[in-house]
Amino acid sequence: TWSAVPAGPPDPILGVTEAFKADQDPRKINLGVGAYRDEHGKPYVLTSVKKAEEVLTASKPDKEYLPIPGLPEFTKLAAKLAYGAESVPLQQNAVAVTQSISGTGALRIGGAFLARHYPHAKIIYLPVPSWGNHTPIFRDSGLEVRGYRYFDKKTVGLDFEGLKADLKAAPEQSIVLLHACAHNPTGVDPTKQQWAEISDIVKERKLFPFFDMAYQGFASGSTDRDAFAVRHFVEQGHQIALAQSFAKNMGLYGERVGAFSLTTSDAAEKARVDSQLKIIIRPMYSNPPLHGARIASTILGNKELYSEWESEVKGMADRIISMREKLYNTLTHDLKTPGEWGHIKSQIGMFSFTGLTQPQTKALAEKAHIYMTADGRISMAGLNGGNIEHFAESVSAAVKG
Length: 401
Ligand code: PMP
Prior knowledge:
CATH superfamily of the largest domain: Type I PLP-dependent aspartate aminotransferase-like (Major domain)
CATH class of the largest domain: Alpha Beta
Number of strands: 13
Bound molecules: 4'-deoxy-4'-aminopyridoxal-5'-phosphate
Mean pLDDT: 96
Helix content: 40-55%
Number of domains: 2
Number of helices: 16
CATH topology of the largest domain: Aspartate Aminotransferase, domain 2
Largest sheet: 7 strands, mixed
Strand order of the largest sheet: 2-10-9-8-7-3-4
Distance between the termini: 50 Å
Oligomer: single chain
């Protein structure tokens, strides 16, 4: 029956982990996948998460099904975290929100909702480059995927002129995907001033903004500061779509905790949108998983756990920033590596776009047992005091040829 099914290509990001696992060298480093590692290179379970689990265990909760849109306490608190307690649409009960299978599921619910209900041409513009999964998520949702310029290879920074020109040239009413903070894969974010200009263009062209916020707290160490773009757009009167993930900022990767929301005109419209979200979700997976949402809502709803969580998010962001400093100093001052490396320090969040070429990344895997995606993206969180010297020396050698 399946003799005509061709073998598909390996996933470009998860494939890196497979190559890493097969390597037996003790110096090997995996900088492919975007999962936080502590200073010993180990996965990190947040203390606030462990405490929330203790609270949950003590309360002996049942294992009944959740409603289709998930745990009500969780979705309420997730929306508050993103939009802010002062948000006008939240106070007006005009935000439709549902729990989702982490950020990926939120994007997929959003894609499906737009494909079914968005009353204009179903074209979505993604930044070039973007997270590799965005294209298949939106294409499989039934949207036409196009790109807008984002990254300038020459400056290893934002191509703001290209971005503005492409958004201005997009057909009116197109959907535009924006990374709310800590852009993946480039680590390059617009400034506040640039966000304000993007908001104006989106308004002028009547574009529909869809925010992907997978790293709230990871860019600056503060969940409020990282929500700037989302809150600014809402304050400017835009109606937005928003995908949230708690994979990174709570370290709940495999628990699959996320939320999808849409700001609407009023409570009656919100209720109609909520009803259609349920109709989309029911035949996909019926209702979402329980445990991770309970952990997240326990943390978000408890003053002490919340402030402990905030300081742990800041701790993760700060460790990454210190690795950026150390890598920059080692590459430039100690090893006199040719080229400009300022972007290592200026880029934001989990990732750095190193500017390493494909032959260089290949050489690093073969000679130095260092694994990263072929575009030269590294997860800064994979670096630590024990491996950063080996990494910097190997990069320096690869660049010197
Ligand atoms: N959006 C972006 C930009 C991401 O980088 C990721 C994770 N790599 C996600 C969404 C979704 O991740 P998850 O489904 O694990 O929440």
